[in-house]
Structures are given as C-alpha cells and as structure tokens.
Amino acid sequence: xxxxxxxxxxxxxxxxxxxxxxxxxxxxxxxxxxxxxxxxxxxxxxxxxxxxxxxxxxxxxxxxxxxxxxxxxxxxxxxxxxxxxxxxxxxxxxxxxxxxxxxxxxxxxxxxxxxxxxxxxxxxxxxxxxxxxxxxxxxxxxxxxxxxxxxxxxxxxxxxxxxxxxxxxxxxxxxxxxxxxxxxxxxxxxxxxxxxxxxxxxxxxxxxxxxxxxxxxxxxxxxxxxxxxxxxxxxxxxxxxxxxxxxxxxxxxxxxxxxxxxxxxxxxxxxxxxxxxxxxxxxxxxxxxxxxxxxxxxxxxxxxxxxxxxxxxxxxxxxxxxxxxxxxxxxxxxxxxxxxxxxxxxxxxxxxxxxxxxxxxxxxxxxxxxxxxxxxxxxxxxxxxxxxxxxxxxxxxxxxxxxxxxxxxxxxxxxxxxxxxxxxxxxxxxxxxxxxxxxxxxxxxxxxxxxxxxxxxxxxxxxxxxxxxxxxxxxxxxxxxxxxxxxxxxxxxxxxxxxxxxxxxx
Length: 506
Ligand code: UN1
Prior knowledge:
The protein is of the alpha/beta class. It is built from 15 helices and 19 strands.
C-alpha cells in the first residue's frame, strides 16, 4: 500500500538539521528536539471522563443500527478514502497523539511513535485490502443459462472492545476493519484510556466516517457486557484477556437470536528457546527487548525463556547485564526505556507475583524503579515451567534451563500452557529451528530476533487456543471475518434466454 513516511522511525530523529536565516547560522537542532518541544507544548490536562450508563450503551446500538443502512451502501472507495484520510490526519497531528499516548497510556517516546505508525498502517492496510475484497463482485463459474456472483457485505452493528496497552493502534485497527467491511460500529475502549479513543473517534468522523456509523461508549467491563448482550449486535471484535473473551462467548451463546461471530485476540505465556549455538549478545538484547520493553505490557511479550543448560549461567548473566542498563521512569523523558505500568491495580498484581516468585524461585536480577506506578524488571529462574500458571502482564522474566536431549519436553511444556501466541527461537541449527516450528501451534514465530512489534501487513498478528480465535490482525484474511458473503444465482435462460429461443423458432 501507499507509504507516506511522515512518522519518523526513532532512529531518524537523531539526524541533525541545519537552520539558516539571512546567512546567520543558528547552530544545530535535531528533529528530535523539535518533536520533544512540540509534544511538550501539546501535553494535555487529563480531565475526568464520565462512564456511559447501560441505557446509553443501548441507545448507541440503536443509533448504529439506524446508521448501518446508509454506511453499508456507501461505495467501497469512499469507505477506503475515509480511512486513508484518517491515517493522514493522524500523521499530521503526531505531536498531539504522542503527548496523549504518554499522558494517558504511559508510553515512552519510542513506543508512542511505533504505535502511531501502527495505527496509521492499520487504516491504510485495511483500506487497501477492502478495495480488493469489497470493491466488486466475484463472478463464479456455472452452467450455461445461469450467472453466479459472490459479494461481500457488512454484517450489521459490530461491537469493538479494545485494550489499554495499544489504546490507539488496536482501537483504530478494530474500528477501521469493521467499518471497511461495511459495518456500523459501537466502540468500547478500555476504561483506563478513554480519552485517546475519544480523540481517535473524532478524527475518524472528521476524516469522513458518518457520525451515524461510528459511536463511542466509555466505561468498564459492565458496559462491555451490556453491549455484547444486546440483541441487535451482529459481531464482536475483542482484544484483551482470555477470561473476558470467554465471558463474551458465553454472553453471545446465551442469546436467543442470531449466531454472532467473535473475533478475539487474547493473552499468552510466550516462550523463547535459546540453545547453545545461539549468539549470546543477540539473545541478551532480544530477551531484554521482548520481556521488558513497554514494561512487558504486550500480549506478544516474552514470559518464559528456555536456555540450554551448557550456556545458561553465561546467558542469564548477560541478560541481567543488559537489563541493568535500562532506565525506568518518566515516559516523557527521552532517555527512559521503561515507563510505568498502567495503574495501581496492575502494579499490585505484579508486586504480588514478584513476592510469590521470591519464595518459589531463584532471583537472578531485580532492577530499580522509582516510587509510583513503576515495576522494576525482574529475572527469576524456575525449576519447572509449570510454576508459571498464568499470563503475568509486566516486566518479569522466568527462565528455565533445559538439556539438549530434553528439547521435546520443552515443547510439551509450551503446549501445556494451552496458549499459542508468540514464540522466539535462538539457534544456528536449521534442523532444530525447523523441528520446533513443526511441533508448536503458535501464531507468530520469530527466529534469531526479538518477538514483539509485529508489523501490519508483514507479520499478521494473532494466536490459537487460549490466545484467541483469529483471523490475524493486519493480515490478508482479517476483513473477511467482519463480513457476510452473499451469492446471487440468476437463471438467465428464464427471461432473455427463453425469449431468444422462441424468437429463433418463429
Ligand atoms: C497486544 O499486545 O495486545 O507484536 C497485541 C506486538 C503487538 C502486540 C499487540 N502487535 O508486539
């Protein structure tokens, strides 16, 4: 798809720019200095947001139902153009959105920039996919005297429930996909990040999505439950915990009404396997990125590292060494690598896990974090992978040693988690890599690199089992699940054909 490289990559920001005026040189300023000044100027005051009532949630569904007729009949190119315009608007207001992502989402500059880029990519990618998939009917083969065509249409009202960890990218990705497929949408963002969602909705409306086709409802899980229980919902797209995905499934199944699809992307107990042939420096760098960046608050993040025994001591030491370099603190400080966790509740849950691990496992490393909503990176060594029984959504790494001859047990342990989202492999033996890939049911596998930051259209993202239902976000099959298929078969012999036959006889 068209690429407008207007959101710089973090590295681009360090290139010096020269400013000349009337022959007087002012000295060097970097694009980074400018961006930081713009972001600082744009930093919003976070005013309280009022939650919707269940009645308002019902009213939003009714309004979206009314809006469906017009939006579903809007031409594909018009729908796509609105999403492309939204991407353009996002990029032209990048300082504003970065400031908001930092203030409300606790994102570091690196993470905010990547998220902004991902959000714009989702809009453009789904617009491009939508032009192909919804632009025209597909004519199907059939006998003479019959014409057959297959068309894709919107389902109706889609409810989109999104998480706080990608409050812009996942929010917009879900909404863009549902809209592109011709659905009207009621979006319910995480209760921790309603302001980013509100701004994203305003931007979509400004870009040309009719008010009647897109509605925002803020509130916690109770509002989400009210939305999914509503009889007029035609589909649900959800990213968040496995537990909530199950609850949504139960709600949808209990309704006396149409069978409603759920597209869910949930959690993971994601593993990495590093064998004795892996490059230790690279393992250390990739482990630190995968486990601790974004404060470990990604569903793709590394939780469980299996290291071959022969190299384990050295590897763990190098990983701890790399982790020691991380600066934890204020996300608006450009030197910060790891920002805060999302809220106090998250911090308490993580602190409790750390306390439990301290008594059950061997502590190899504990970083230092400032006062407040911060959790320092920790590295624990477990004697058995089964000690980690749930997804721990923070910067805590669990290491397990294995012997080369027991690789099959490592794969069994991964299978026993029943999740299947991401997997990292560090090895220089092709047979080992292939054998692992062959035996795991994992959605996204990364070999000899880090395992986060799936790129839209490059690494379509999503998993199996406890990790979700698919299809993969940012992939070529995603939009189809938001739509219904309709075939029309016309007996062309009945009217024109018969007439021609009769005419021939006469
Ligand atoms: C999530 O954390 O909810 O690959 C999913 C990545 C991101 C993960 C998004 N696309 O790191």
